[in-house]
Amino acid sequence: MANCLKARPGQVALLKEQDQEEFIGVAKLTNEREVRILRQLQFLRGVVKIKMEKELEPDVHLLITHYAGQDLKSYCLCRVGPGPPAMGIVVGLLTVVQNVHNAGFVHLDIKPANVVVPVNVTDTSAILLDFGLACSTEETLCGPTGTQGWMAPEVEELEENEENEEIDLKLADIWSLGKVLLFMTDSCTFTEQEKDLAETLGKRMISVDPDERPSLADVLSQVWQMVGHL
User: Where does the Protein kinase domain start and stop, copy by copy (predicted)?
Assistant: First the structure.
């Protein structure tokens, strides 16, 4: 029998098998939009998988997702046991976000807590969690959207409930990715050459001017030029 902590909308709770304490997944209450977007992205490698979903009342869904691994912060700061190389995780994370963008969506809450590192040492497909703020690339935001400290400056400066200028949401995700890369260079183990590249790319990605940020295709091209294949 499964046992789950009670959760308010937006909160998550671990779901375990009551008898064996075996991890089953993460349960959260969310809205129809997150479920709809996540369904459309299930074919992408690196997007967290839906284990179960049920509508409890209009626009309130119980969403249970499953992944195997540890979040990026834990991987970097207190890594336990084997795991993929840090540069492999960089490639995996950049790739999944690029694929999400190509599918017509943005995440808008990219941060270490929403990235899972697989337990398999040969698997570099970083897993992206929590699509609660995700939306179409064509949407216009009505205020700051994301986590403070991980939001692009043009997103953080938006006026609440005001008609805002349209911004390129893909470039906002790229800014957040740059912050994650810089977090990794401070916390994870890289070779000296890999660290230099990750720092250089991360600093370019967090440019205050969105137009000065590189595309994900450009970033991935530079990474692949160095590492070849992992």
Answer: 1-230
